[in-house]
C-alpha cells in the first residue's frame, strides 16, 4: 500500500465513529477508536476505552473500519422514527442508568452519621450524596417501616438497611458491626442476602475485628430489656432491629440487591431506657423527661448517648469500607 | 442586563491581563465536555455518536479542574453529553467555583429537579437550560414528548431555590420568528436571568442534515427575530454577536476563544470540528495551523458557521478593541436595541 493510500485510510478512520482494526506489519492486530493522528503516528483508545495507544505509521500495514458506525446507527434510528417522538414516560436517564444506592435508617440521628459518609448534610429526613463513586440517597423512614415506599420512589440499584440494633450474642459490644447473612421476622420467615453480594461486602469489611456475620431478627416492638433480648437469642442470630425485615422484603419483591449492616447499640445484658420503646416524632423531650424522672435517668441517658456515638462511628467506618466496592455491587450499565 | 456586573468585570479583567501580556491567542470560555453520554438523542446533535465504551468514559474531577486551570478562562461552559449524568458533577462544579470561575452548566433539565439538592446556589453557578423554542418546537427538536414541560418545571424550581438560570436556544431552518418571539416572552416571564441564541452548526455526524441554516438564511432569520427586539428580553450574550447574527456586522471566527476539552484531549481546532486533539492547551494554541480555519480560509466546513463558540469571543475582543465598539455594546445593554 502506498503512503498516500495509507494516509487516506487513516483520515477515514479518524472521521469514523466506530472501532477500526489496525493490522501491523508484523501481522498482529489492534482494535480501537482513532481520535488523533500526526504525520508519523496514529492515536487510539482500545476497545474498553481504558488505554491510549500511539502507533507509528511505519508499523501500520492496513486500517479497516470494522466496528459499528455510531453515527450511521443514529442516522438510521432517526430515519426510522422521523417525526415520531419518544414517549413522555421515557426514563429521564435515557439509555443510562444511575440508580442510587438507597440507605434506609430509622432515626434522624443515624441519618446525620450517614450524611458524613455521603459527604452531605441531611435535608429533612433525607441525605443525597455519594457512596464511593455512586449516587446515594439515605432516608430516615422511622422505626419499623417505610422501606417499600422509599424503594418505589427511588428505584435504587442497591438497598442497604443500616443503623442501630440490639445485640443477641453475649460477645457483642456497642459499636460492633453485624453484616447480615439473612434477616428473619418474628414468625421465623427468613430472607438471605445473595451470596455474591455478601462475598463482596465481606471482603470489603475483612480484617476489621469488630465485624461479625450472621442472622438479624426483626421484631415489631423494641426489644429494650435483657429478658426480651434473651428470648430472641439463638445460635447464629446476632442482632435485633425493627427495620431490616421490611427493607429486605421490599428489596426482594422489587428484585433489587440488598445488604443489612447493623451496628450494636445495646449489649444483650444491657437495658434501654423505657422511652425508646415508643415511637416519637422527636426524642429530645422524652429523653429529657427520662433524665429528670429519677436519679438513674441521667446516668441512663449519658450511657445511651455514649453508646450511640460509638455505634455511629462504627457504622460510618463500615460504610466507608463498603464505599469502594459499591460499583461491584451495582455496576452502571446501559439499559439497552 | 443579561450578564451580572461581577461576571462582566471578570471577563474584562481577563482580557486586559491577556492584552498587557501581549498574548495574541487566549481563551474566554472553556467548553468542558466531561462526558459524551446523553439522555436525549436530539435531531441536530453530532456530539454523542460514539461506541458505548467511549460513552461510558468520563473525565475525572481532577482532569476537569486541571483543564480549567491550564487554559485560565474566566468562564467554563460544562457541556457534553448531559453533564448531570456525570456521577461527580457536583464535585466538578464545586471545584470550579472554588477557582472563582463562572460556570454555565448546560443541561436539558430532565434530571435538574431531582439533582438540585446536590448543588448550592452561588453567583458563579448558572444552569443553562437547553430550550429550542416553544413546547411543540422544542419537543420535536429533542425528539421526546414532555421535555419542554419538564424543563419549565425544573427552571421554576431552580429559580425558586435561588439559582441563576439562563436558557440556550439553537435555531434551525424552518424556525418561525413569530413563535420564537413569543417563546422569548415566555422565558422572560418565567424569570430566567438571560437567554442565549445561536444558529445550529451543520455537524456532519448529526442525523438531520436538512435543517442547518446557511449564512444568508441565518441573517434573515435573526433579523426577523431580533429587529426592534423587545426591551424586556435579556440576552446573555454580547450585543455585537447578536448584530453579527443579524448581518449588521462582519466578524471572523476566533476558534481558540472557546477551546474544548474532553476525554480525548484539547479538540482541534474548535468545539465543532474534530481535526484531532492536542495534549495540552499550549500545544493546541501553538501547534494548530489556525490559517486553515474560519470564513476567510475558504475551508468549506467554516463557510456557513455563525455559532457563538467561534464568534462570541470575536465580539468580546471587538468590544475591547475600540471605543466605538465599547460604546455600541454599552448603549445596546442600556437601551436593549440591537
What would your notes on this structure say?
The complex is a heterodimer of chains A (336) and B (338). The model of chain A is unreliable at 332-336 (pLDDT under 50). In chain A, the strands form 2 sheets. In chain A, strands 4-3-2-1-5 form a 5-stranded antiparallel β-sheet, covered by helices on one side. In chain A, strands 9-13-12-10-14 form a 5-stranded mixed β-barrel. Chain A has helices at 3-15, 70-81, 108-118, 147-154, 195-205, 226-232, 244-253, 284-293, 295-322, 326-329; strands at 20-24, 29-38, 41-46, 52-56, 60-64, 101-105, 126-131, 134-140, 158-167, 177-184, 190-192, 211-218, 237-241, 258-266. Chain A has 336 residues and is an alpha/beta fold. Chain A folds into 2 domains: 3-70, SH3 type barrels; 101-329, Nucleoside phosphorylase domain (Rossmann fold). The radius of gyration of chain A is 28 Å and the shape is elongated. Helix content of chain A is 34%, strand content 27%. In chain B, 56% of the residues are buried. In chain B, helix 8 crosses helix 9 (215-226) and helix 10 packs across helix 12 (308-319). Helix content of chain B is 39%, strand content 14%. A 9-stranded mixed β-sheet of chain B has the order 6-5-4-3-2-1-7-8-9, with helices on both faces. Chain B contains 13 helices and 9 strands. Chain B has 338 residues and is of the alpha/beta class. Chain B is globular. In chain B, a hairpin with a 2-residue loop joins strand 7 and strand 8. Chain B has a single domain (5-335), classed as TIM Barrel, CATH 3.20.20.70. At the A-B interface, strand 2, helix 2 and strand 7 of A face helix 2 and strand 9 of B.
Amino acid at each position: 500500500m502506498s503512503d498516500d493510500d495509507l494516509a487516506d485510510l487513516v483520515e477515514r478512520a479518524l472521521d469514523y465513529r466506530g472501532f477500526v482494526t489496525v493490522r501491523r506489519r508484523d501481522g498482529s492486530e489492534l482494535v480501537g477508536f482513532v481520535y488523533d493522528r500526526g504525520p508519523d503516528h496514529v492515536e487510539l483508545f482500545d476497545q474498553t476505552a481504558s488505554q491510549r495507544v500511539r502507533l507509528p505509521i511505519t508499523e501500520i500495514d492496513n486500517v479497516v473500519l470494522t466496528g459499528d458506525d455510531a453515527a450511521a446507527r443514529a442516522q438510521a434510528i432517526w430515519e426510522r422514527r422521523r417525526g415520531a417522538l419518544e414517549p413522555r414516560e421515557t426514563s429521564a436517564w435515557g439509555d443510562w442508568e444511575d440508580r442510587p444506592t438507597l440507605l434506609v435508617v430509622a432515626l434522624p440521628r443515624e441519618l446525620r452519621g450517614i450524611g458524613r459518609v455521603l459527604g452531605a448534610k441531611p435535608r429533612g429526613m433525607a441525605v443525597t450524596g455519594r457512596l464511593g463513586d455512586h449516587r446515594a440517597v439515605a432516608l430516615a423512614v422511622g422505626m419499623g417501616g417505610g422501606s417499600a415506599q422509599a424503594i418505589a420512589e427511588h428505584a435504587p440499584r442497591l438497598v442497604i438497611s443500616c443503623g442501630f440494633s440490639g445485640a443477641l450474642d453475649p460477645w457483642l459490644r456497642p459499636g460492633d458491626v453485624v453484616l447480615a447473612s439473612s434477616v428473619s421476622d418474628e414468625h421465623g420467615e427468613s430472607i438471605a442476602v445473595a451470596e455474591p453480594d455478601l462475598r463482596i461486602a465481606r471482603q470489603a469489611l475483612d480484617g476489621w475485628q469488630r465485624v461479625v456475620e450472621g442472622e438479624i431478627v426483626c421484631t415489631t416492638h423494641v426489644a429494650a430489656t435483657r429478658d426480651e433480648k434473651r428470648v430472641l437469642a439463638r445460635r447464629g442470630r446476632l442482632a435485633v432491629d425493627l427495620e431490616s425485615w421490611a427493607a429486605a422484603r421490599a428489596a426482594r419483591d422489587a428484585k433489587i440487591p440488598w445488604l443489612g449492616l447493623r451496628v450494636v447499640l445495646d449489649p444483650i445484658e444491657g437495658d434501654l431506657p423505657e422511652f425508646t420503646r415508643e415511637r416519637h416524632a422527636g426524642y429530645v423531650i422524652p429523653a429529657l423527661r427520662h433524665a429528670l424522672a429519677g436519679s438513674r435517668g441521667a446516668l441512663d441517658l449519658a450511657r445511651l448517648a455514649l453508646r450511640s456515638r460509638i455505634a455511629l462511628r462504627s457504622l460510618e467506618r463500615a460504610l466507608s469500607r463498603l464505599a469502594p466496592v459499591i460499583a461491584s455491587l451495582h455496576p452502571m450499565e446501559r439499559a439497552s | 442586563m443579561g450578564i451580572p456586573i461581577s461576571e462582566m468585570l471578570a471577563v474584562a479583567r481577563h482580557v486586559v491581563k491577556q492584552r498587557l501580556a501581549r498574548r495574541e491567542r487566549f481563551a474566554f470560555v472553556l467548553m468542558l465536555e466531561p462526558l459524551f453520554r446523553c439522555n436525549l438523542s436530539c435531531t441536530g446533535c453530532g456530539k454523542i455518536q460514539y461506541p458505548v465504551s467511549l460513552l461510558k468514559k468520563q473525565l475525572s474531577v481532577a482532569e476537569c479542574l486541571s483543564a480549567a486551570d491550564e487554559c485560565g478562562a474566566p468562564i467554563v461552559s460544562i457541556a457534553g453529553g448531559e453533564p448531570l449524568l456525570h456521577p461527580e458533577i457536583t464535585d466538578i462544579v464545586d471545584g470550579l467555583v472554588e477557582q472563582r470561575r463562572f460556570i454555565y452548566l448546560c443541561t436539558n433539565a430532565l434530571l435538574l429537579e431531582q439533582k438540585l439538592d446536590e448543588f448550592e446556589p452561588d453567583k458563579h453557578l448558572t444552569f443553562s437550560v437547553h430550550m429550542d423554542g416553544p413546547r411543540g418546537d422544542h419537543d420535536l427538536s429533542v425528539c421526546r414528548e414532555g421535555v419542554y414541560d419538564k424543563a419549565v418545571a425544573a427552571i421554576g424550581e431552580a429559580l425558586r431555590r435561588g439559582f441563576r438560570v439562563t436558557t440556550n436556544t439553537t435555531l434551525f431552518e424552518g424556525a418561525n420568528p413569530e413563535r420564537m418571539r413569543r417563546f422569548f416572552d415566555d422565558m422572560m416571564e418565567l424569570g430566567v436571568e438571560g437567554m442565549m441564541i445561536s444558529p445550529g452548526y451543520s455537524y456532519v455526524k448529526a442525523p438531520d442534515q436538512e435543517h442547518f441554516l446557511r449564512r444568508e438564511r441565518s441573517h434573515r432569520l435573526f433579523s426577523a427575530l431580533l429587529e426592534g427586539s423587545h426591551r424586556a428580553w435579556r440576552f446573555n450574550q454580547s450585543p455585537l454577536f447578536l448584530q453579527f447574527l443579524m448581518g449588521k456586522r462582519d466578524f471572523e471566527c476566533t476558534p481558540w476563544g472557546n477551546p474544548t476539552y474532553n476525554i480525548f484531549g484539547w479538540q482541534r481546532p474548535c468545539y465543532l470540528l474534530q481535526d484531532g486533539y492536542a495534549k495540552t492547551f499550549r500545544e493546541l494554541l501553538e501547534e494548530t495551523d489556525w490559517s486553515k480555519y474560519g470564513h476567510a480560509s475558504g475551508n468549506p466546513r467554516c463557510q456557513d458557521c455563525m455559532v457563538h463558540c467561534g464568534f462570541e469571543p470575536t465580539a468580546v475582543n471587538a468590544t475591547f478593541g475600540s471605543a466605538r465598539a465599547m460604546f455600541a455594546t454599552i448603549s445596546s445593554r442600556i437601551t436593549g436595541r440591537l
